[in-house]
Structure formats: structure tokens, C-alpha cells
Design a protein that fits this description.
HAD_sf, Cof-type HAD-IIB family hydrolase, 6-stranded mixed sheet, Cof, about 30% helix, 8-stranded mixed sheet, hydrolase, 2 domains, Hypothetical Protein, Haloacid Dehalogenase-like Hydrolase, Chain: A, domain 2, HAD-like_sf, single chain, 11 helices
Amino acid sequence: MKYKWIVMDMDGTLTNSEKKITPRTREALIQAQKQGATLILASGRPTHGLYKEAKELMMDTYGGILMSFNGARMVEYPSEKVLYNHVVLPKCKRPIINNARALNLSVMIHDGEYVITDVEDCYKADYEASICNMKVKVVDDLNEYVENFDPNKFLISAPADYLKTQFEDFRLPFGDMLTICTSAPFYIEVVDNGIDKGSALRDLSEQMHVSKDEIIAFGDEMNDLTMLQFAGCGVAMGNAVKPIRLIADKITASNDDDGIAVTLEKYL
């Protein structure tokens, strides 16, 4: 296997449109591990939302790394040893919630096994809980909740067409205090300034003495951009948004057509 690290986004990349890992992709990734490669799941999802796929890929046997919250938290798997943990600055917590509310956007955070919101019909809360194998918890007031809890990430949601019109109005008040990007047409993800998948991958590679040329990364959305730029080989899925396809070193098949396997099989 040419690459030491295989880094993959989850939704739209590793999983298909049904949120499943295809048999061909699973087999290619298991074979890569047998040949010495380490898998890194790199997602906007919370850590808890990566366990099912990690086990399915036999990472509990071969070992690997879970990069969650767009790089704000990293743990070894299956030991769950924390390698990196970065939370949103306390001074930004209330402004994030209040600005989202002013724009009629829904707000969620993740705490352990729960997706936390303070709105009964929070847009995409049930969806988020489902794909992450979590439960929805509705609290009285999210502002009060975060007084005693520091989230790694805020997740903002709304119907895609509306969210697109509100993105800049949501982002602009925060300037360079936060990293704000989209991970799906209906999601805005908010983490601390300087936190993204690329910087997390860079820091991890320096810590573990792995050259960027020994890293291949796969992605499809804007929160994957820095990761694909950093990796020695950045691969855009066939279903990737246009900016990702433009900066990628390679473009593979879509997530519904075994895109990861199509590329990896050339190196196995």
C-alpha cells in the first residue's frame, strides 16, 4: 500500500446516499489496513457518530483515528485516547445562538450521546440523531445549557434554499473569531477560529511523523477543502461540489459508485 494514512470524510464520501458503506468500499479499506495503512475518519459528526462505521471497517482490530467536529476533537480508536480537543470560545457561544435565532435558523450542539436543542421541531435534529446513532434532547434554553457546557461545534440548520441566502448574514458578524463553513446544503458548521480538517491533519501528521506525501484524503463538501489541500493526494468524489473538484489532485467516482474503492484498488 503506497499510503500510510487514508483519510475520509463520512457523509457523501465514505457512505452512500443511503448512509451505508458499500461492500466494495469496505473490502478495499480492510485490505488497505491489512497492508499496513491506518484509517482516519474525518467528519463534522460528533465522535459518537463515528463508532458504528469505525467498527464496520474493523478499525477496532487494526486501530485508527476518529477526527470529529471538523477537526476540533481527535481520538485514537478503539482506545478512545484523546489526542486533541478544542471547544468554541465561551464569549462566542451566546452570539452564535442569538444570531442564528435572529435569522430564523435552527441551532444544535452535541453532548455525549445527545443532540441538544431547545426547539421541539428543530430542523434536521431527528436526521442528525439518526445518522449519528444518537438521541434528541430538548432543553428549556440552549443559552442556559451552554453556560455549563463548552461545545466543540455548533450546528446550524435550515432548508437548503433559505440557508444559502442567510449564510453570509450569519457569518459576517463573527469576522475571524470562528471557522464557519457548510457541510451539506442544509448545514452550517461553526467551530473555533483556525479549526478545520486540514489543520487538524497537519498537526496530527507532525506529531506522528507522517509525511503529507504518505497521506491520501477523500472528500466532497466545503469542510473537506483544507484536508484535500494538505494531503499528498487529495481526491474529490464524483459527487463533490465544484470548488472541491477544482482543487483536488484526482476525481474519482461518486459515493454511490464506490469512489473510494475505485481509487484505492489501484494501490492494493
